[in-house]
Amino acid sequence: MPRTITTTAPDRLTAVLADVLGTDWTLPTVPEWPAVFTSDAADRDLTCYPDWKNGRLIFELSPAGATSNDFDRRRFAKYSPDLTGYDTIHDWLARGDLTAVTDARAVILERLVEQPLPERVPLADPLQTEREHLADQAKELAAHASHFAAGLIWSQPVADDAQRLATLARDLAHTATRVDELRGYKNPRR
User: Which burial class, exposed, middle or buried, applies to 86 when counting CB atoms under 10 A from its CB (0-12, 13-18, 19+)?
Assistant: First the structure.
């Protein structure tokens, strides 16, 4: 029979993590999941929450006040406690000796917090991306056409090369159509 889940789990973990993080981090104001610590000096948020399904804690470091647009600027770390004797991660958080594993969590958090956050990745221009892809495909097709021609001249088997050329040509035509569509041209074959 599962044990009763208490609401003290966020408070207990928050207190232990506050000791690990030190005074540079502001504690969460509301005792609920996810627990969010903030460092004004580092301009970062550290979010902690239990992964109920996998029985572990997830730590997420992000820019302070991050939005969904900042997902690529986050770093993650995971901690899997020994749940022997506990029904769930929540049961461990509510009843377990959280200070006994402080050193392990301190190492994880220290490594996570000291890492720089990834730089924002500018959104790629789809037309430019497809044009670059088209140019690469054209180069590959030209190289295989040269190889095919050499095989003809030297009386080498060329059937496999011809099949590869046909595949490359189909791929090139598909990408060229996509480039034309992105440029606003209608495909006359449709």
Answer: middle
Q: Residue 127, class by beta-carbon neighbours within 10 Å (0-12 exposed, 13-18 middle, 19+ buried)?
A: middle
Cβ atoms within 10 A of the Cβ of 92, count? Answer: 22
Contact 18/25 with Cβ under 8 angstroms?
A: yes
Q: What is the pLDDT of residues 43-87, one digit of tens each?
A: 888 889 898 889 999 999 888 877 666 667 788 989 999 999 998
φ and ψ at 81, to 5 degrees? Answer: -75, 165
What are the C-alpha distances in Å from 142 to residues 131, 138, 139, 164, 168? Answer: 16, 6, 5, 12, 10
Pairing of strands 35-39, 56-63: unpaired
In the chain, what is the straight-line distance between the N-terminal and C-terminal CA atoms, in Å? 64
Identify the bridge partners of residue 57 per DSSP, sorted by sequence position.
50, 79
